[in-house]
Amino acid sequence: KLVPVLSVSPSWLSPGASVTLSCEVQPQSAGWRFFWYKAVPELSVRSYSFELLPNITSRTEQNSYIVQGQTHTAGYVCRAGRGEPVDYTGYSEPKFVWSADLHPAASLSVSPDRVQHFSSDSVSLSCGGKSAEWRVWRSTETDPLSVCSIWGNMNRSTCTINPYWFHSGVYWCESGSGEFSNAVNITVQ
Question: Coiled coil located at which positions (predicted)?
Fold first, then answer.
């Protein structure tokens, strides 16, 4: 199956700003209709479920869609379809719009609390909010989406990073109730 590529702009959010989602199918050809989804964390399967974005009853003919008034970190997915009955592509990989909002429903805190770290640092990422279950994800230049259990040790609501696998990137928490925390951009020297 064809798998489209989703891009988001901007990737860092000013609360209340508009976000543009663009979905591209390769090779390009006419007749595609595009479907837009929100990615909702599913902790039990280390994946996401997909919910059609509200106010879209079926599809858009254009390969872009604008989300108005985005305030918190969110994940998005697209897919395309054409013909009758509709022949769908696969789902794109999730793409995220990150918010540095310091008062989201779920939160991420870094210890020690600084933006720049050294690769030998012992660093813990703690999730806060009304949830009994958490997972911590990161996105780096070489690995766009990976979970704490691969590069650290998750213990309840805290991920302790293995210094060998500590890389610059964006880190965030996801709760068992489907919420995203603020995101933190960490630089590792």
Answer: none
- The string of DSSP codes covering 23-77 is EE-SS--S--EEEEEEEEEEGGGTEEEEEEPTT-SS-BSSSEEEEEEE-S-EEEE
Containing 12, the helix (H) or strand (E) segment is strand 12-13
pLDDT in tens, 59-108: 678 899 998 888 888 999 999 999 889 899 999 999 999 988 777 778 99
Q: What is the mean pLDDT of residues 113-133?
A: 87
User: Which residues are within 8 A (CB) of 66 and not within 5 positions of it... i.e. 6 or more apart?
Assistant: 18, 19, 20, 21
The residue with greater pLDDT, 119 or 184, is 184
Alpha-carbon torsion, ordered 9, 15, 16, 21, to 10 deg = 20
Which residue type, as a one-letter code, is found at position 76?
A: Y
Distance, in Å, from the CA atom of 148 to the CA atom of 152, rounded to the nearest integer, reads 5
d(CA 77, CA 7): 9
Q: At which residue do the structure tokens 């989300």 appear? A: 67
What pTM, to 2 d.p., does this model score? 0.84
